[in-house]
Amino acid sequence: MGHTWTTLNYLRSPQEYIGENLETFKSEMLEFLRIPSISTSPDHLEEVQEAASWLKGMIEQSGLQAEIHQTPGHPIVLGEWREAGNNAPTVLVYGHYDVQPPEPLELWNSPPFEPEIRNGRLYGRGSADDKGQLYLHLKAAEAFLKGPGNLPVNLILLIEGEEEVGSPNLLPFVESQKDRLSCDVTLISDTSMIAPGLPSILCSLRGLAYFDIEVRGPSSDLHSGVCGGPVVNPALALAQILASLQNSEGQIAIDHFYDDIVEWPAQQVEALKTLPFDKGDFEESIGRELCGGEQQYTVLERLWTRPTVEVNGLNSGYTGEGAKTVLPSVAQAKVSFRLVSDQTPERIEVLFRQHVEQVAPKGVEVTIRHLHGGMPWRSQLNEKLKSAVDSALTKVFDKESVIAGEGGSIPIVNVLEQVLESPVLLLGFSYPGCNLHAPNEWFPEENIENGIRTIAHLYQEFSSVNKLR
């Protein structure tokens, strides 16, 4: 009996463990972020593999079993702890360890893969999307396994290295491992809170259709004085095509583009007006007035409930120092469409190709490649799940959560929900203006602790719910 009492004296609650090890957690997160796991570039294959191996080791160090599953692309890392018993719920956590390219490097205030904490922000590529937020879940699990010694739920960590390139190999893996990945709820932290200090549960995501469009003219670059005039300039032709995608009212000018849209219920649209969204703060964070898109809709409606077209990149001709009066032989652009229910990437591809065929000038050859896409998503969260999340968030933030949308896309959400036949919960801890996919990406330092504590509480709340589904 005396020995048992001495052992119990050393047991700590998860929340105590988090408090005692918070600085270690931060140091480990910085170490993780130093790995340039850029999935879009073949130049970083070794670093992506390094990130997967590092993650496997850290999962094992935290007390879970871990495996690396090679795919035709980048590896999938799987972590598991299944000792809570058959009566306990099973929670699957999805995340990704790959990151976007950091360019343009000259716009970073500190090197993207030399992360640092300054003025309450953790700066570094992947800090918010998604390595930093993913890491919160691992440390919450560790707080149980190294605190009291066990988790109140069975836990699966499903972590991929190809989210930023459309998750081409995750669906086959999930389908082949459907029984092993069976769960009561999928938990994802790859989104933002609507405002600092205000916990938010995400109810919607926009879909995505992402294209490369290339316009070819003469067989080589030409002298614009010698040949300019009769030779069609591919850069101008591309500019005409891109300009035709949107009219002066901010509407997408592709025939039948809006045909399949299911409008948000009026009650939910009205509820958006009650959210503490400050247009002025948002404008200040981006440095420009919010005058884009369909002006008859509010800013939040334009961000969450309406589709968009965006030119993501342009490349043609000479853009170096000085002058070079070239007539370029080729012009290329990346174009993306954000979609809403019930639009599909496949249908948008058909309409986009038809539109470009109609507006492209003679004298050039246009090639369109559909790079990747994903369906829009609306939450199927039941009252039991929402109550559990509300309770966990309130314990940490001392505020009731709000239901919000998200303008971005996580294509795998629909896949996980449909294949595993369980609800998906989106619970993010980054803030608006965290510069996702942009220079100076950051994550709020305070939410390293808040996020880990919330997730730990959430695991405990899940364990007390009779049936999550």
Protein model, in words:
The protein is of the alpha+beta class and 469 residues long. The chain has 14 helices and 18 strands. It has two domains: 2-205 and 376-463, Zn peptidases (Aminopeptidase); 207-271 and 297-374, Alpha-Beta Plaits (2-Layer Sandwich). It has helices spanning 2-10, 14-33, 45-62, 131-145, 170-176, 224-227, 234-243, 266-272, 279-286, 299-304, 345-359, 383-397, 412-420, 446-463; strands at 65-69, 76-81, 90-96, 116-118, 121-123, 154-160, 185-188, 200-205, 207-216, 222-223, 308-316, 326-327, 330-339, 365-374, 377-378, 402-406, 424-426, 442-444. Helix 2 packs antiparallel against helix 4. The longest helix is centred in the N-terminal third of the chain and has 20 residues, at 14-33.
What is the topological layout?
Blueprint: H1 2-10, H2 14-33, H3 45-62, E1 65-69, E2 76-81, E3 90-96, E4 116-118, E5 121-123, H4 131-145, E6 154-160, H5 170-176, E7 185-188, E8 200-205, E9 207-216, E10 222-223, H6 224-227, H7 234-243, H8 266-272, H9 279-286, H10 299-304, E11 308-316, E12 326-327, E13 330-339, H11 345-359, E14 365-374, E15 377-378, H12 383-397, E16 402-406, H13 412-420, E17 424-426, E18 442-444, H14 446-463
